[in-house]
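Now read the record:
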Amino acid sequence: MSVSLESLPDEPPRDELPLRPVHVVGDRYRTFAENDRVTTSGAVAKVLTTTGPPLSDQVLLVPGQGVTEEDWHTLAAAPTQRTVRFGAAPASALDGSEVLKLRSENVLLAGLRETGPVTYTAELVVHADSEMVQDHTAERQHLPGMLLMEASCQMIIAVTGRFLASRGVSDAYYTVMHHFEIDFRRFVFPLPAQLRLTVDEMGDLTGGPDRIPFAVTIDVVQGGFDCARARWRYRAFRPAAVFAAEAERAREAVAACAVVRTVLPRAPGAVS
């Protein structure tokens, strides 16, 4: 634990001291927790259950990535003889249905809200069991770039659903991506971060069309720094329209691959 939660020597009166934030991250981010003012949830749990001098009530524990709302409430409710201040619990992740995820731990967004006529903001939330973290061999300090790409994808899916519904388009549209690019500018660490989406272009919503084109820009922001910028072009399709197109393309792909196989040299015993 890199930041001592113990009382500081020679403190001025407590009512004159500002609170010292200490970020609490998931145990997986133990390398990052070697930084000043960062610790892990496991370290906090150990301190709270260990007999010792009172903790400084000028320390405010603040949740980072890898710590869920349930984790936070469990820590705050743990029996202890030590007094410590807990900041607000992390926001709950969106329902998986809003971002096309079956497992809640793979949802990367929370607190989605509209901030203007064509602007939306959400909190980045990374569960300790997210597949984007668990199935990644690098265990350094920053979050994987692929995780930010996935978060931006989830952002357009969630925003498009709410955006259309708020404008009276009642049918559930299916998002199909056509173009994606991203600029990475700074590392993103397991601390609070936000995604900000701006709708740059959109098609006519009147008459409930089969497809609506969109172009959006998504900025990933942490601590006031612009860390990444993603640009997407996609279309929102009526499910019947996109599934019909998908089925036709599937038949074309099967036929095309069958033709290719017939002209390739056959290995002994191969079936064309």
In short: The longest helix spans residues 239-263. The two ends are 62 Å apart (CA to CA). The beta strands are 20-25, 38-40, 59-63, 85-86, 109-116, 119-124, 174-184, 194-202, 211-222, 225-237.
